[in-house]
Amino acid sequence: MEKLRYSVTVKAPREKVWKVLFDGETYRIWTSEFAEGSYAVTDWAEGSKALFLTPSGEGMVARIARHVPNEFLSIEHLGVVKDGVEDKESDEVKKWAGAREDYLLRETDSGSELSVEMDVAGDEKQSLEKIWPKALEKVKELAEAPAGDSPDYGWNAG
User: Fold this and answer.
1) How many whole angstroms from its chain centre is CA 13?
2) How far apart are CA 53 and CA 31, in angstroms?
3) Mean pLDDT throughout 16-32?
4) Is the separation of the CB atoms in 17 and 9 below 8 Å?
5) Cα 124 off chain centre by
6) Is-above-0.85 flag for pTM?
7) How far apart, in whole angstroms, are the C-alpha atoms of residue 49 and residue 105?
8) Which of 72, 87, 99, 152 could form a disulfide with 68 if both were Cys (CB 3.0 to 4.6 A apart)?
9) What is the pLDDT of residues 107-136, one digit of tens each?
10) How many Cβ atoms are within 10 Å of 98's Cβ, its own excluded?
11) Number of Cβ atoms within 10 Å of the Cβ of 118
12) Cα dihedral angle (87, 89, 91, 93), rounded to 10 degrees?
């Protein structure tokens, strides 16, 4: 597996960036770059199970490997969800099972620096290299928006 790294400087405190990353509504907005309508089913607590799903209910099953609020979150990918069934054993899944996706927030003089590092296998690299910068730009826009205001991405929580 290869590691990909992305970062963005955000003019907002770490707590606000963290909330944008992992709050249900804003999580759906920035992850729409990966799959429109995608969402997470987890409490984000260390050791907890996490499902990262599309509106059709398919996606990834993972575990929160490490969680230091407002600073660091590590997700360990374990398998896929297809037709409502979790697959952690197939040969295809075993090729990338254990891959990590890490989020690190550092305080800077002008706000926060968000870094994302992830393990990728094979043909995912090209698409992720296009998607991650767009997703991080959405995180930045959401975090830098004044309180009570957020950019309109056409997603309605209601």
Assistant:
1) 19
2) 11
3) 95
4) no
5) 15
6) yes
7) 22
8) 72
9) 999 999 999 999 987 778 888 999 999 999
10) 11
11) 20
12) 50
Q: Which residues contact 84 (CB under 8 A, 6 or more apart)?
A: 57
Which residue is it, tokens 């590092």?
Answer: 117
Q: Which two tokens stand for residue 142?
A: 């959401």
Tokens of 128: 């992720």
Is residue 105 within 8 Å of 17, Cβ to Cβ? yes
Domains of the chain: 2-144 (3.30.530.20)
For 131, the token pair is 């998607």
d(CA 22, CA 42): 10
